[in-house]
């Protein structure tokens, strides 16, 4: 109950982590099934329909329900601590964002047991995703589930923007913010300007499928390429929503374990902003083969290649940070250092794909699959591993086991390269993506076998990580405040895990890397910016949970509104939109309650603070 | 009844009560950000409409359908409602709770009139012109764009009504003031979107 009503950013972070971890596991199992099917030519382990559902759900689950929540977990856990705040700007909305994400994810995955998962690929290209070619409710689960989950993401993005703009501790100017905060700030801005586009896209597709609208139906004047434009004007910035937080994590971990200031801090900041800006300019590089014409292709090709410049700045800055530092290869730093070459390889194939004429050859082959897995797994997932190992003691008060952590790293990264490195060559040799099997004797056999073995090894790495978490959770919570001993930022100045009010007194920030600055000038603690006083806390509330339940019910009701149930009562409830109405009444009723009954929260008094 | 009490409380309020607390300032800032996102939402809807506006599938076209005097009347109502919401905020800044409430009531009333006109307009199209959601790509885009705006108006009416109720229960405080201020921002935004709809959908449909 405590977990359902909490509005504490640290607990919401843990909720995001467990929920994201669960979906990550589901997405991982789907990946393993895909790889088992492809282990040998003409395999009959899965049929084509199941394979289509698996690849669709693997992509969708991993991106929207797996890695995004883990990013949000770290952002929730770390941002308020790094900027010296007691909470986020809107604790209530923070809880609401989590619950809408969770119920959206649950709705999407219900499709497995309610008549078939979405089967049109994670991009749901029309006309493949229209009722004509995708007749089950699968794509409805996709559009409505993602709509609900996306709502949560948007709420989270706005919340982090407001938090970072207004809640920084005294003295923390924008150019003194830790890089992870900067990365999260820019990420939130991209979320704000990219997610409404997919909201509209999903609405249009829902209307086409459920209300028989004609947006993508060419026989009634619609335009099916329109979907690709809308999808990618969201979808390309989404790539940077995913990778920028990983950049932020790497920029925190490497300086800590190199015992040096991040090289080129201000160039890192501006590179991040530039990447975000360019990220919006390049969506049509996913559409070179749709016939946009040479001028459009050339422009999008050049703007795409431009992104390599700020990204290259970042890569070199990380290398220069390590240069001459006293580098310690702890588990977080192993992941961070492993990230650099792996992500760079993904970037290089990105430039290759950005060349429009070459893309006509690479398009829809395993070369593309290899490219984006190098970026998202070799970049983001390694970054998330680095961040989780780094901040685990701060989140849970327990150090993860270093030996097991190193085993996780080596099995995972070796498995990763085994899986995806060979896929570059499979793609160059012409193996198509999204096809459920292949013919023997095309020289695909051995490389696919290697790829599947690699996927298994990545699975072993995940199991070692889970074992590490399990064993760690049985140890006493005795991590020191600054467990890595070279912590540079404000989260390491308070206990692990932090008290619910985070900072007894808001700290005074006197420079970049606030805590490091105090340490190097001989202080053990931060100088407080205020006297000890009562601390205002928001009250716990069930309303965000109820609001999300309402949206969930409304979504289900809308989805089945045109079904013939062969049951008078069910037909009456769904066909007249009564279920939808009940869901909306729950949601709007909760909003009304929230509006009418102000809850002013409560205070923690100074005596209580001293008592701890 | 509670008005006297509220007037008394208003006497102690700062000049801009919506920005008196960190929470209030956060609300205003976050709402500006939210409107940024809403702009992308409507921008995408407008882009979709522009791409499909001539795809009538042998059904009625914009020129056949639109009746400018009706739309002009709706536009006038909505523009005036934006003005009355400005009067409401000015009254709030002077601490005059009754005046504030009355201007909010006028705003809600004008919004309702607008919505009635829009529902009337849609019903004429559906009944007499056989122009429904499924008629053509143009019809789908039209109902989605204009309907999204209409849904925003309906939500705004509900929201401001709840705030009027809240004002009666709790009076004007540093907690209620930011909510009223933010709802006025929302109302202006809806108004601006309508100006674009008037131009891009209706005027361009008639003469473009």
UniProtKB/TrEMBL annotation, chain A:
It is found in: Cell membrane. Pathway: Energy metabolism; oxidative phosphorylation. Its EC number is 7.1.1.9. The keyword Iron applies. It holds the Pfam family COX1. The keyword Membrane applies. One of its GO terms (cellular component) is plasma membrane. This is Cytochrome c oxidase subunit 1. It comes from Paenibacillus sonchi. The gene is ctaD.
UniProtKB/TrEMBL annotation, chain B:
Keywords: Cell membrane, Membrane, Transmembrane, Transmembrane helix. This is Cytochrome (Ubi)quinol oxidase subunit III. GO terms for molecular function: cytochrome-c oxidase activity. PANTHER family: CYTOCHROME C OXIDASE SUBUNIT 3, CYTOCHROME C OXIDASE SUBUNIT III. Gene3D superfamilies: Cytochrome c oxidase, subunit III, four-helix bundle. The chain crosses the membrane at residues 29-50, 70-91, 103-120, 140-164, 185-205. Belongs to the cytochrome c oxidase subunit 3 family. One of its GO terms (biological process) is aerobic electron transport chain. It is found in: Cell membrane. Its main location: membrane. Residues 29-206 form the Heme-copper oxidase subunit III family profile domain. One of its GO terms (cellular component) is plasma membrane. It comes from Paenibacillus sonchi. It is a multi-pass membrane protein. The keyword Membrane applies.
């Amino acid at each position: 109950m405590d977990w359902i009503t909490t509005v504490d950013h640290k607990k919401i972070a843990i909720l995001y982590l467990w929920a994201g971890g669960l979906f990550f596991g589901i997405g991982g199992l789907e990946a393993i099934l895909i790889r088992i099917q492809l282990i040998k030519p003409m395999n009959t382990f899965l049929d084509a329909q199941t394979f289509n559902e698996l690849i669709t759900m693997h992509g969708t689950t991993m991106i929207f329900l797996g890695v995004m929540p883990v990013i949000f977990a770290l952002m929730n856990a770390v941002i308020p601590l790094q900027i010296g705040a007691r909470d986020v700007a809107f604790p209530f909305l923070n809880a609401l964002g989590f619950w809408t994400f969770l119920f959206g994810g649950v709705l999407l995955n219900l499709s497995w047991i309610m008549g078939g998962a979405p089967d049109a690929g994670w991009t749901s290209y029309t006309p493949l995703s229209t009722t004509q070619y995708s007749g089950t409710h699968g794509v409805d689960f996709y559009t409505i589930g993602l709509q609900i989950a996306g709502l949560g993401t948007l709420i989270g993005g706005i919340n982090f923007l407001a938090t970072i703009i207004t809640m920084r501790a005294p003295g923390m100017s924008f150019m003194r913010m830790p890089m992870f905060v900067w990365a999260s700030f820019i990420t939130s801005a991209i979320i704000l300007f990219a997610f409404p586009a997919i909201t509209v896209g999903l609405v249009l597709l829902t209307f086409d499928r459920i209300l028989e609208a004609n947006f993508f139906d060419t026989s009634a004047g619609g335009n099916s390429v329109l979907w690709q434009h809308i999808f990618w004007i969201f979808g390309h910035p989404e790539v940077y929503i995913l990778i920028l937080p990983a950049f932020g994590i790497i920029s925190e971990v490497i300086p800590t374990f190199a015992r040096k200031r991040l090289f080129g801090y201000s160039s890192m900041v501006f590179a991040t902003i530039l990447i975000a800006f360019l990220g919006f300019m390049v969506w049509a590089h996913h559409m070179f083969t749709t016939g946009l014409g040479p001028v459009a292709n050339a422009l999008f090709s050049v703007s795409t290649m431009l992104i390599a410049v700020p990204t290259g700045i970042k890569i070199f800055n990380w290398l220069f940070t390590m240069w001459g530092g006293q580098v310690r290869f702890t588990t977080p730093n192993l992941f961070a250092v492993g990230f650099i070459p792996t992500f760079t390889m993904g970037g290089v194939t990105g430039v290759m794909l950005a060349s429009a004429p070459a893309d006509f050859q690479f398009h829809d082959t395993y070369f593309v699959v290899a490219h984006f897995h190098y970026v998202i797994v070799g970049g983001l997932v390694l970054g998330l591993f680095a961040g989780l190992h780094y901040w685990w003691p701060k989140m849970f008060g327990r150090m993860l086991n270093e030996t097991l952590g190193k085993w996780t790293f080596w099995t995972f990264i070796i498995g990763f390269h085994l899986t995806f490195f060979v896929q570059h060559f499979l793609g160059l040799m012409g193996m198509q993506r999204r096809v459920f099997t292949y013919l023997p004797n095309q020289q695909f056999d051995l490389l696919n076998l290697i790829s599947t073995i690699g996927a298994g090894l990545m699975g072993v790495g995940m199991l070692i990580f889970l074992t590490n978490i399990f064993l760690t959770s049985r140890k006493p919570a005795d991590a020191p405040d600054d467990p890595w001993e070279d912590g540079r930022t404000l989260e390491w100045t308070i206990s692990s895990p932090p008290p619910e009010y985070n900072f007894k007194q808001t700290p005074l920030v006197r420079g970049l890397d606030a805590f490091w600055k105090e340490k190097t000038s001989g202080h053990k603690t931060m100088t407080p910016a205020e006297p000890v006083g009562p601390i205002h806390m928001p009250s716990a509330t069930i309303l965000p949970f109820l609001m999300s339940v309402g949206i969930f019910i409304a979504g289900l009701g809308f989805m089945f509104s045109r079904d013939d149930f062969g049951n008078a009562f069910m037909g009456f409830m769904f066909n007249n939109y009564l279920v939808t109405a009940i869901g909306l009444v729950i949601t709007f009723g909760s909003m009304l309650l929230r509006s009418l009954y102000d809850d002013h929260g409560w205070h923690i008094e100074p005596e209580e603070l001293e008592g701890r | 009844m509670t008005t006297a009490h509220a007037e008394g409380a208003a006497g102690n309020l700062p000049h801009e009560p919506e920005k008196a607390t960190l929470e209030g300032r956060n609300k205003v800032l976050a709402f500006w950000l939210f409107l940024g996102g809403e702009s992308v939402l409507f921008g995408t809807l407008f882009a979709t409409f522009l791409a499909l506006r001539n795809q009538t599938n042998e059904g009625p076209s914009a020129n056949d359908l639109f009746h400018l005097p009706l739309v002009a009347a709706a536009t006038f109502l909505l523009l005036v409602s934006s003005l009355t919401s400005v009067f409401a905020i000015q009254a709030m800044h002077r601490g005059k709770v009754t005046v504030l409430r009355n201007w909010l009531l006028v705003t809600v009333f004008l919004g309702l009139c607008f919505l009635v006109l829009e529902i009337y307009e849609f019903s004429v199209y559906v009944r007499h012109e056989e122009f429904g959601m499924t008629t053509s790509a143009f019809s789908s885009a039209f109902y989605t764009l204009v309907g999204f705006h209409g849904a925003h108006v309906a939500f705004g009416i509900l929201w401001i009504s709840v705030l009027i109720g809240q004002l009666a229960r709790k009076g004007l405080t540093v907690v209620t003031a930011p909510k009223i201020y933010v709802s006025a921002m929302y109302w202006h935004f809806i108004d601006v979107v309508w100006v674009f709809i008037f131009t891009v959908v209706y005027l361009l449909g008639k003469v473009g």
